[in-house]
Amino acid sequence: MASSVAIGPSIMTADLLNLGAQIEVAEAAGVDFIHLDVMDGRFVPNISFGLPVCAALRRATSLPLDARLMIEQPEHYVDAFRDAGADRITVHVESCLHLHRTLLQIGEMGAVAGVSINPSTPLGAIEEVLPICGQVLVMLVNPGFGGQSLIPSMLDKVRRLRSMIDARNPRCLLEVDGGIKPSNIKRVVEAGADTIVVGSAIFNDEDSVSDAVAALRSAIG
Ligand code: DX5
User: Ligand 1: does its nearest atom lie under 6 Å from the Cβ of 147?
Assistant: First the structure.
């Protein structure tokens, strides 16, 4: 189990009409970073938001901005997301042909270089680039939509990745995203995740953002 755990809300499930206010309450609730799910309608079957929203968030918060590019050929956009204020830029192993080059490119721009991996992709696909990654994001659901249920077999994948990271690049963050809520966050952390993205369990109609973040933290124990 990781010694310290960072929690960041995904703005995918936030009230986008009031995004500034939503970020303000999330920040006051003590979240550690803000996660942006950038979707192009090609790599994933949904379209979300892009560079202007990243730039607007940069003006609204000093928290790290964690941009995950669920887009085809992300290498064409990493510079622009860095310019728009992203501190961590994650590309998908499945959509980035020259992944090694792109991760180096992200690092050279001064951002944390991340790679994300879909549920159906074996961990072997990222083994060769692990030494140059600042973070690996394991998708616990198939990407595209908030509010889905965590795929239980992904917990073992997180466990196996924890061992790989400890052996080959212990400073690399192990991030997870998809279906995380108070009832399962402890299992995800015990499996080895240290950086947790949460969408609908933070931004929803039932709880305040501060109660939601407190419930997640207390569930970790
Ligand atoms: C899927 C999305 C979601 C989202 C989090 O591509 O990336 O995982 O950020 O939403 P919840 O926590 O509702 O699954």
Answer: yes
Rounded Cα distance, 97 and 161, in Å: 22
Residue 49, Cβ density class (10 Å: 0-12 exposed, 13-18 middle, ≥19 buried)? middle
| Contact of 22 with 11, CB cutoff 8 Å | yes
Q: In angstroms, rounded to a whole number, what is the distance separating the alpha carbons of residues 176 and 106? A: 20
Residue type at 175? E
Which of 171, 176, 144 minimizes the C-alpha distance to 159?
A: 176
Distance set, CA 164 to CA 31, 45, 153, 169, 171 (Å): 27, 31, 17, 8, 12
In angstroms, how far apart are the furthest CA atoms of the chain?
A: 44
Q: What is the DSSP string of 72-105?
A: SSGGGTHHHHHHTT-SEEEEEGGG-TTHHHHHHH
pTM of the shown model = 0.97
192 lines ligand 1 (CB under 6 A): no
CA 139 – CA 212 distance, rounded (Å): 21
Ligand 1: which residue has its CA nearest to atom 12?
199
Question: Cα 144 vs. chain centroid, distance in angstroms?
Answer: 13
Tens-place pLDDT, residues 96-117:
999 999 999 999 999 999 999 9
Ligand 1 close to Cβ of residue 37 (< 6 A): yes
Q: Hey, which residues are catalytic here? A: 37, 177
Res 202: pLDDT: 98
Q: How far is the CA of 106 from the centre of ligand 1 (A)?
A: 23
